[in-house]
Amino acid sequence: MPKMRKKSDLPSKICATCGLPFAWRKKWERDWDNVLYCSERCKKGKAASL
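Given the sequence above, the corresponding structure tokens read:
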């Protein structure tokens, strides 16, 4: 069984749209290198910020 990690120990990134930091999530485990947006809302609104 893997050792539990604290939330502060998880990797984080800056959202490409809103500029806010967001933390790693289990559902992004296999695709973390390609995750650019913190939410679907930011992903859909990416054209508005460019």
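The mean pLDDT is 86. Try to locate this feature in the token string yourself.
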